[in-house]
Every structure is written in C-alpha cells, then in structure tokens.
Specification:
Layout (H helix, E strand, L loop, with lengths): L13 H12 L8 E6 L6 H11 L5 E3 L13 H13 L4 E3 L2 E2 L4 E2 L3 E3 L4 E5 L12 E7 L3 H12 L4 H17 L8 E6 L2 E6 L13 E2 L7
Parallel strand pairs: 1-7, 1-8, 2-7, 8-9
Antiparallel strand pairs: 3-6, 4-5, 9-10, 10-11
Helix pairs in contact: 1-2
C-alpha cells in the first residue's frame, strides 16, 4: 500500500500556494490588475521565486525589471515604466514595452503585456516610491545584501565582474534614497525545503494578517 504522504499543509510548496491564494483575494490595485512587486538585493533569488509564484498563480505574467533597466538607466527608468506599463494597465489596456538586451546594449522589439488578474513586477526597485501606489502587495526577498551580491557575482561569473562593481554602488545609492524593505507587506526567506513567508512592517491587521507559512515538515500557519 503506498504511503499517504505528508499532510497538505506540510508538503513542499505550501508557502507559495498559500501566498498565491492570498494575492488572488486582494482588491485590484492598477485598473483591473493586482500588481505585485517582488523586490530585494541583486542576487537574492527574486527571479526564481517570482517564476514559482507565477506558476502557482496559473501562469501569471512576470515583468522583469532587467528588461526595463539599461546600462544608461540602471534605476532611472521609473517614468518610462509608468508611461509604458502602469498607465495603460490602469486603464484596462494592453501595455507595451521594449525589453533591453544587456549584451547588445540596445532595446529590442516591443513586447505586449495584457491586463491579467495578477501581474508580478520582479527586480531591484520593484517597491520604489513611484510604483508603490499601484501595488496590491510588496514582497521583499529577505537576504542580506552582501550575501545576495556574493551569490549574484558567482552566478554571473568573471565576464560580469566590471558590471557588478558599478552595480553595487548604484544599488547602494538607490536603496539609500528610495528604500523598499520598510514598506514591504511580506518578507520572503529561502529555506532548505523552499520558502518562508513572514509579515513585513507594512502588513496591516485584517483577515489576511496571519501569513506565516513555511515549506517542509516544520510548516506552520
């Protein structure tokens, strides 16, 4: 007889599926869309987490801010993002933006981003001041910056060594002037079995207040 397996709230992926349910229940924040920011230091695991969360949301679109930023505008892309993406979505229309090719150092053909129940905005600066009014929820990847940067450098290799030197200073300046973590609704921490989701400083009391979920055998909610 096959093993029945662990209880449902202890199976891998509990945190992400609980979070996806929470996000679906939020009121729209940008026209018909629930924009959800996934912010954190470079190398903190934002892209991987956003991909897994998008899958739990039945294939929710993910806007990667690496496609919006450029060598010339590492962080000075907020007005362009508002004009090309946020404003059309707020009117219930399809947004269009040109993704940046970091190797060719040029913008490519325009890409469409239709309205969807949930759209994830993933990247450093996703919780910046200009975007927060349009976010239904802000998630922060809870990993110290030095550890995140070390992971990022290891991931990108020697080829990107010079870029990383400039990036670290630019990121320091950005978060010093426009921090995201103090405004995060939820903190996401990578653990051995997956992720742990904890309340952030900006999480308010209400029916969704108890949000602590952890993947693996010690899961609690």
């Amino acid at each position: 007889m096959p093993s029945p397996g662990p209880p449902p709230d202890q199976s891998p992926g509990t945190a992400i599926h609980a979070l996806s349910s929470r996000l679906r229940r939020l009121p729209p924040s940008c026209g018909p869309v629930r924009l959800v920011g996934v912010d954190g230091h470079a190398g903190s695991g934002k892209s991987t987490f956003a991909g897994r969360l998008a899958a739990a949301l039945d294939g929710a679109p993910v806007l990667h801010l690496d496609d919006v930023a450029s060598h010339e505008e590492l962080f000075a892309w907020d007005r362009r993002l508002l004009a090309e993406v946020v404003e059309p979505l707020a009117r219930g229309r399809t947004a269009h933006y040109a993704p940046y090719d970091w190797r060719a150092q040029d913008f490519g053909p325009a890409r469409a981003l239709p309205p969807a129940p949930v759209i994830l905005v993933e990247g450093v600066g996703a919780g910046r001041r200009a975007l927060r009014p349009f976010l239904a929820q802000l998630l922060w990847m809870e990993l110290p910056r030095e550890e995140a940067w070390t992971r990022g450098r290891s991931r990108d290799g020697e080829e990107q060594r010079e870029f990383w030197a400039g990036w670290v200073e630019a990121e320091r300046r950005h978060f010093a002037a426009d921090p995201s973590r103090p405004y995060a609704d939820l903190l996401v921490r990578q653990v051995e079995q997956g992720y742990e989701v904890l309340p952030g400083r900006n999480d308010t009391a209400g029916p969704h207040r108890s949000v602590t979920h952890r993947d693996g055998p010690s899961a609690v909610c």
